[in-house]
């Protein structure tokens, strides 16, 4: 009787060989390892990846507040310095998210070490999630560094009014740029290609999307063009979290950012899954 009971329990006890890792639906260990590897990669040079962008953004704040803020200029019912500060934060966040994701795959692709990303037992979705999450993490670090410095800056008030908007647009905005960076790395054949996307598409779109001005102060044609810019909704929504005022309906902006993440995420997933331009 005891032997029969032991036999009934044996299959569940020795289902897998000792020491053999078993991956069920999601490889959490592999995905976490890749995420930590990417975080350590940019943290090793944090002077360049975190503090340098923060310093550059603060210089923008100094220049614009000195040039335009001394005269008591009011925008959307607040001082110009308070208006421009949230836009500067999210603008730096999205640009660094793009740079981080693009610099993850592109060097490996060009140097022939892309196999280090493709051979481990992680799926395309897990690879994509780890790369995007690490890019968003870098953008959050940059944003916190800038926000912390602005808290100490005289004449600037950057305390959130709607924390949920700060969190939502502070994550979905950089995530969109992280997906764009991955697509750029997959498409590009050399570093110049990625630099061209960053210099001629990402930077202009981020700066010409209401970072330094309100839509009430621009011509109707330029306002229409700005509303077609996806960066506009990230900046407007993020600013709403600090000022409780925005240039566009906040719900529309939240849905636009969600839709962009879904669409770009699906495109990146298909590109990685099929091995477009990354598999021989």
Automatic annotation (TrEMBL):
Chief subcellular location: membrane
Q: Which residues form a coiled coil?
A: none
> Which InterPro entries is this protein grouped with?
ABC-2_transport_permease, ABC2_TM, ABC2_TM_bact-type, ABC_2_transport
The subcellular location is:
Cell inner membrane; Membrane
According to the entry, every stretch annotated as the ABC transmembrane type-2 domain falls at 44-275
**GO terms for CC?**
ATP-binding cassette (ABC) transporter complex
- Stretches that traverse the bilayer: 50-68, 80-98, 127-153, 165-188, 194-213, 250-272
The membrane topology term of the UniProt record is:
Multi-pass membrane protein
GO terms, molecular function: ABC-type transporter activity
User: What keywords are assigned to this protein?
Assistant: Cell membrane, Membrane, Transmembrane, Transmembrane helix, Transport
- Similarity section: Belongs to the ABC-2 integral membrane protein family.
Q: Which PANTHER family match?
A: INNER MEMBRANE TRANSPORT PERMEASE YADH (PTHR43332:SF2), INNER MEMBRANE TRANSPORT PERMEASE YADH-RELATED (PTHR43332)
Protein name per UniProt: Transport permease protein
Q: List the source organism.
A: Sphingobium nicotianae
Lineage of the organism: Bacteria, Pseudomonadati, Pseudomonadota, Alphaproteobacteria, Sphingomonadales
